[in-house]
Design goal:
619 residues; alpha/beta; Rossmann fold; 21 helices; 13 strands; GTP-bd; GNL1-like; hydrolase; GTP-bd_ortho_bundle_sf; coiled coil
Length: 619
């Protein structure tokens, strides 16, 4: 049997050698930690491949295309970086972003606003309404076809109510100057180039102006960059801040009231003194004469000042315009509106200024700042103004306010629309993409300094300089503000609304650069102010709130693994060594063994399971 067994063993070995042993194993001289295409090794290398391949994985496809193209690649071993899946939720990669931007530039001319059909005095009202509906329907079909051609092209949710566009048509027809109000942080998103073309189609003598509102959020250099850019585009630009103008007016009004009170007190004292020293009807007559002469002198001085201002304005704003980057005050903006148009006006001797813009860019606030009182209702929710209205700013200057219209324009994602205030935050369904986009724009230290929070650092193996994702920011913010759910976790949805509203209002400031300047050069952030605090030094409750999943570092893992076990002998059942017994501490002890060794030993106290496993329920 032994001989047969040995014979069988040798036969099997011989068969294996005959099949696989004739080829010598190749040795790789490359001692580096690299996988490389230069090493022509492997079982199938050099053999004729006659297998039919119809389906293959992406990795196999990559290797085959590299082999066919003759390209060389190297992949370094052990050079691994972990990518957090929560970091890029709802965001585009750089290649995807570039592809979409190129497509948007190619389809830029297809983005149009609806035109009002041509009509004459012979056109009836019913026929005109029918023509308007037909034109509007064609316009909507063209935009839907544009979106169907490429799903990656995302349009803003443009206005689909014909009545709003009718209001715009009326404003353009009545206005001598059409002013597009844009947000200073991203002017190109709120600018409609097709609107400028339509204004010139209605009347080539009409003037287009871009009013950059919220310009107090920009620095002097940033305003100059935009002034130069729009100068190159051939459009007049003015920089204004409605909130700043309103504050300045209120401060001046308070100072004037205080001065008037002081002057009135002085006048009363002087009149009382004169009444005491002088009496008679002649004195009162002289006082009235002096007052009338003083009023006449004031009127002539006011007229001279107005003439001088008009001369200065003509010198400052000639027909060949030059955009000024200065932040205009209320009076300067009014004088700019007065002098910008010199042709024949729609209304005789009255210059009509039409104000057009997206919702929530500060259009109503600008009108209230110019009128120095509340004439138009203001709301943070887009679409507060419903109908166009006319307001006389001065005798020869008329403002025509148009309802806020969301005109069709390209955006990268819906999160971009939320951050720019186009979509209302309170109606937002998914907050994660918008907050992730915010975190990619606002650095970690700016968020920590603004809110006084400590955001969880990247886990071991991740890029230490990566931006935080939405969960890390919202957990820290919610814990700091006390926004907690019924489960004891920080309320992320509520925290997201507060953080996004701070971005829209400008507390978290991020300004997008013109196409001619790099973003990193255009907008810079302040340095870190608060001192860095290690996560280990924070309270235990705060550490748990900062992360949904418990973080175990490699040091803690090694410590638990290499922890020295207690040398205890475990004995089950009756021992066969009567001279050996175990103490309560687990050590060996010699001596006589009692008949019942379990007596005298304290049993483990029974503990309720909810107390025993209480640490599992901690949040």
């Amino acid at each position: 049997m032994n001989k047969k067994h040995k014979a069988n063993n040798s036969l099997g070995r011989e068969l294996i050698k005959s099949r696989f042993g004739h080829t010598q194993r190749r040795k790789v001289d490359n001692d580096s930690m690299l996988h490389t295409t230069e090493i022509e090794d492997g079982y199938d290398w050099g053999r004729l491949n006659l297998n039919s391949i119809t389906e293959e994985s992406s990795f196999q496809e990559f290797l085959r295309t590299a082999e066919l193209a003759g390209t060389e690649f190297q992949a370094e071993k052990l050079n691994i970086t972990f990518i957090n899946p929560k970091q890029k939720v709802g965001m585009l990669t750089l290649t995807q972003q570039k592809q979409i931007e190129d497509k948007q530039k190619a389809c830029k001319n297809l983005l149009k606003i609806p035109r009002r059909p041509k009509w004459s005095t012979e056109t009836t009202a019913e026929l005109l309404q029918q023509l308007e509906r037909d034109n509007f329907l064609d316009w909507r079909r063209n935009l839907s076809l544009l979106q169907e051609q490429d799903e990656k092209l995302i349009l803003t949710p443009y206005e689909k109510n014909l009545e709003f566009w009718r209001q715009l048509w009326r404003v353009i027809e009545r206005s001598d100057v059409v002013v597009q109000i844009v947000d200073a942080r991203n002017p190109l998103l709120f600018r409609s180039e097709d609107l400028e073309k339509y204004v010139k189609e209605v009347n080539p003598h009409k003037i287009n102006i871009i009013l950059v509102n919220k310009s107090d959020l920009l620095t002097g250099n940033q305003r100059k960059n935009w002034a130069d850019y729009f100068q190159g585009e051939g459009i007049r630009t003015a920089f204004f801040s409605a909130t700043l103008a309103d504050k300045e007016f209120k401060e001046q009004e308070g100072q004037l009231k205080g001065e008037k009170l002081k002057i009135n007190k002085k006048d009363v004292d002087i009149i009382d003194e004169r009444r005491d020293s002088q009496d008679g009807e002649g004195n009162s007559y002289n006082l009235e004469k002096l007052k009338t002469s003083a009023e006449e002198i004031n009127q002539t001085l006011n007229k001279l000042e107005e003439q001088l201002e008009s001369i200065e304005q003509k010198i400052a704003y000639p027909n060949e315009f030059n955009n000024n980057s200065n932040l205009l005050s209320r009076k300067e903006l009014i004088s700019f509106f007065k002098t910008v148009y010199q042709g024949t006006t729609y209304t005789k001797n009255i210059t009509t200024i039409g104000l057009v813009g997206y919702p929530n860019v500060g259009k109503s606030s600008t009108i209230n700042a110019l009128m120095t009182e509340k004439k138009v209702s203001v709301s943070a929710t887009p679409g507060k103004t419903k109908h166009f209205q006319t307001l006389y700013l001065e005798k020869d200057l008329l403002l025509c306010d148009c309802p806020g219209l969301v005109m069709p324009s390209f955006v990268l994602t819906k999160a971009d629309m939320i951050l720019n205030g186009i979509l209302p935050i309170d109606q937002m369904r998914d907050h994660v993409p918008a907050v992730n986009l915010l975190c990619s724009r606002i650095p970690r230290h700016v968020l920590e300094d603004t809110y006084g929070i400590i955001i969880a650092k990247p886990m071991e193996g991740e890029d230490p300089h990566r931006p935080p994702h939405s969960e890390e920011v919202l957990l820290a913010y919610g814990y700091n503000r006390g926004f907690m759910t019924s489960n004891g976790q920080p309320d992320q949805a509520r925290s997201a609304r507060y953080v996004l509203k701070d971005y829209v209002t400008g507390r978290l400031l991020y300004c997008i650069a013109p196409p001619t300047i790099e973003q990193s050069i255009y907008h810079t952030f302040p340095n870190k102010v608060r001192k860095a605090i290690a996560e280990e030094n924070l309270p235990h409750q705060q550490q748990r709130a900062m992360r949904v999943t418990k973080l175990v570092s490699s040091k803690e893992l090694d410590k638990q693994f290499f922890k020295k076990p207690v040398g205890v002998a475990h004995i089950k059942g009756r021992t066969n060594f009567p001279h050996v017994r175990m103490t309560q501490e687990g050590a060996l002890a010699t001596g006589e063994v009692s008949a019942k060794p379990w007596r005298g030993i304290k049993k483990e106290k029974r503990e309720k399971l909810r107390k025993k496993f209480n640490y599992l329920d901690q949040h």
